[in-house]
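Exercise 7 asks you to align residues with tokens for two separate proteins.
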Amino acid sequence: MKIATFNINGIRARLPRLLEWLEETQPDVVCLQELKAADDIFPESDFQKIGYEAIWHGQKGFNGVAILGKGEKPIEVRRGLEGDPEDDQSRYIEADYKGVRIAGLYLPNGNPHPGPKFDYKLAWMERLRARMTEIWAEEVPCVVCGDFNVIPHDDDVFDPVRMSADALMQPESRDAYNRLLADGWTDALRRMNPRGGVWTYWDYQAGAWQRDHGFRIDHLLLSPETADRLEAAGVDKAYRGREKASDHTPVWVRLAD
């Protein structure tokens, strides 16, 4: 089974590129982030035409997450995280697909730091950890994936000094991410690339793509049941260089049956 995550940065603007990638690479299940579209304008029929069924949790103008399943609709388990009844941002969706629990997320950016947006980021990460603990207790094969907006290590960024003031690299952000790993989850891309140097995001500004000034913030975390089945993990880097591309590129894992 091939499971991918892709921050599409506006599903209406990037739909041709997204459909192109789906048809060329044929992942089994895909988590999407930053739909930037309300529920009623999600392009469900476009995915159905190429063999994918979808569930989604949209929001007008920003945020928004979805899960696509090839040939079979994911069975929704949860949308949104518990722990903050006032949080109305569409950042989390969870489903079962062919025996695997798939959790797709778009974690808050946290900038500017310090401030309320950074506090919200850290609180959201604690709520995520609580949900992941619940999933762990179910002992189901699970992949938690998406745009975490955390650069875990200095070798996950082109220039750690230049990014040192960003919320993505703050010790509190990294500590919250590392607590997930300490709970027993496996960072799939890191396992396959222990020396780092693999990027999943390149800003539109300052020629970042052309200069390969990127960093890694899109992650796939595996439960023990899926980590044991890990065969490969990778980044579809070339898609970032296509016309009208997202500033992120797809990231994927392949699990043995």
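Second protein for Exercise 7:
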Amino acid sequence: MVKKIIIVSSTLLMMSLFALLKAYPTEDIHKPKDSAVGSSSVVLELFTSQGCSSCPPADALLWKVKQEFPNDVFALSYHVDYWDYIGWKDPFAKPEYTQKQRAYGEKFRSSSIYTPQMVINGREHFVGSNREELYSKIDAYKTNSAENMIKIINTDVVNGTVAFSYVATGKIDHRMLRVVLVIDERVTQVKRGENRNRTLKNSNIVVQEKYIELKQSRGESSIQIPDIVSKDDGLTLMLLVEKADLEITGAVKREVSD
């Protein structure tokens, strides 16, 4: 069973950002020794909600595959807000994540969006709790070389932000760098809604993200650590290279520590 909602808006902020991009020359660069490297791009984006009774099996499956494929799979859990009205406000839900899912709905020419939905590499989607489909797609995608290699040179936590520098190789014309902060795991006691009186475990929860235009192959930036992150949370920084059609062509991740 999946939970669906009709798309009511086709005005997509992300698409308009991509439309403003101009072409920039790609630079030739040397590979730094101190870096985290992603040699393949198996990026899983699970759209889920603590207010959806169909989502816990998909949440558990995402946790399972991230344990089994720690190097090949980049797992992201986006909590949407359109099930909050049922009675439980998901603490990780943001309207921006619902808008992101709608953008995928436009791309896939879907008349509705649903939870749990799994999107792989921004290229295709299926029901997030479908174990057989997920493993089949992981096996297929992890044998492919990434179009872009992205490296994190260093990270530093300063005044509530994660500062970092990066290097990207491959074609970067009309591509964006998606910067994502994820909490490794969180357990929640749900008191209302469809999952009332259940204890839910979510993993790789997206708590902050931003986009950077890839004007050059080298750069540095920072991303704010939101208040929902506690000192006991494991925190990971992920960088994804994304094309105008939302396809993901490269990825890298690194654990963040004080």
